[in-house]
Every structure is written in C-alpha cells, then in structure tokens.
C-alpha cells in the first residue's frame, strides 16, 4: 500500500498577490518570478491604479505589488486608496524610478517596501516575504536616502519628538517610567510635588500620551530606561 502523501490541508497558505502594472509584458515577467515560488501566488492582475482597486474589492489578496507610473490612478494614489479600503493589505511599490521623491511619497502612501524593476528578479521575492512579516524592504540606495534625509533634518533643526523635551522633563519622565511616585520624584529632584505634577502634565500633552504606561513605553523607545 503506497504511503499517504502530504495532507493538503496542512500545507501553509500561499501569499495571495495582486499585481498592477500598465505594461502587459512587465506583468507577465513579474508573474513568472512570483508564481515559480511555492509560497507565492498572483491571484489578480490590473493594468492601472483604478483597476487595481476594483481587483482588490473582487479578490482576496494579502499583498499588492504596484507600479508607480500608471494611467488613471498612479500606484501612489492607488496605494493610498487601498490602505484605506483594506487596512490589512500589505503594499509594495515596484518601479523603474530610483528617485528619493517617489520613495518618500510611497512610504507616506502606506507602502512597506520599494523595489526597483531592474533588480526585481533578485529582490522582489524577498520583499514579498518581508512584507508579510511586517518588515520594511528597501533597496540599499533607499536606505542611504532615508539616513541622509534624517541627518539633513537634524542639521537644519527640524528635531524629532525625542528632542522636544527639556532636560528636566526628561529627568521626570525617566523617574515616572521607573515607577517612582510624585512625592519620591520631588524628593529626588529637590522640587515640589506640584512642580512634578506640572511636568507630568506637560509630558503627556507634548507627547500626546494618556497615562504612566504610555510614558513608560515612550521612555523605553527613547532609550531613557531599559525594557
């Protein structure tokens, strides 16, 4: 009696992909790259951004791979619509444009990855899998652009929220996050309890937070205390 084969029900579900590009030849090439992987499957194709939105409504997809330059709606416009329409849908931009402006717009539009067509055969499969793990995927030049943009903003004084606190507020935040009461903080810093409470209120307002737990999480992210 032959041994039973693998149970289809136990096989991992494939990542269902919506592919949008206005060039049929490009779509065909990209589909060949994706469909030859055992865990990836293109379930719908679209020739422009508007059609991509229609396809997302008609098909269950886990991931959308969108070209940037498309008629009717661009990939960037479609990404914004899809992010609102299907919040659980991951979005990758696949483009010929090694362009910082497009990169930043793509990330603002809700894309979690930016892949160049010139290296799609090398990067696209890895980008799809990274997206489904909720990990960003950027080509090396994009990472360099992001770092340069951040350093430029710091150099020009456009500081992030990590630097909007005064040194005293940072001290209070650290002590709050470590679990000290307002009375203990007042004694440690040689200030009044009312001053401590005022600092705490300012911290919550400045950072847009609600309570001690959120202050503690922020302090961990800011490197003021260890998790």
Automatic annotation (TrEMBL):
Classification via InterPro entries: CheY-like_superfamily (IPR011006), NreC/VraR/RcsB-like_REC (IPR058245), Sig_transdc_resp-reg_C-effctor (IPR016032), Sig_transdc_resp-reg_receiver (IPR001789), Tscrpt_reg_LuxR_C (IPR000792), WalR-like (IPR039420)
Location of 4-aspartylphosphate modifications: 67
Record's keyword terms, sorted: DNA-binding, Phosphoprotein, Transcription, Transcription regulation
Sequence ranges assigned to domain Response regulatory in this UniProt record: 16-132
Location of the HTH luxR-type domain: 158-223
Gene3D superfamilies in the record: 3.40.50.2300
Lineage: superkingdom: Bacteria
SMART domains tied to this protein: HTH_LUXR, REC
Protein's recorded name: Response regulator transcription factor
Species assigned in the record: Streptomyces violaceorubidus
